[in-house]
């Protein structure tokens, strides 16, 4: 069976299904492995109309889930050296330029606000055109990745390793797997 996709696969407003979606980040740790974490609470809205496709989302910083002692997360990750959750409790993204290509690929030009700093980010990936799901509502998906330099948002903490190199990489990979449900 050959499936064709229109040039406008999404039409209307779609909200993220939190159960079937994830937003994660990964950063090189001690030069050898990736430290991964995810946001447990994410909101997102995709609006597609004649003017194009817009995507916006947010996550409370304190919804970061990592496998480490709670004291480390609360003191270090939420602290001033990293997310500074006390002063900047939310991370937001706004994309007015969402390109959904006929081959199923997607390119998103967005503005990411973290620690009170807003910077442009380009993400790329794929989308899955909406289908009628078991609940008789349209469901589609958008899967995106982007690589950013954490220092662009003022996350500058670093420690040298004894044999050279840095304890923490500067490049951070952001990954979003969003299952989007037609707004009721």
Automatic annotation (TrEMBL):
SUPFAM superfamilies in alphabetical order: YceI-like (SSF101874)
InterPro entries: Lipid/polyisoprenoid-bd_YceI, TTHA0802/YceI-like_sf
Limits of the Lipid/polyisoprenoid-binding YceI-like domain: 13-181
Gene3D superfamilies for the chain: Lipid/polyisoprenoid-binding, YceI-like (2.40.128.110)
Pfam family, one: YceI
SMART domains membership: YceI
Family: Belongs to the UPF0312 family.
Protein's name according to its UniProt entry: YceI family protein
Organism: Pseudonocardia adelaidensis
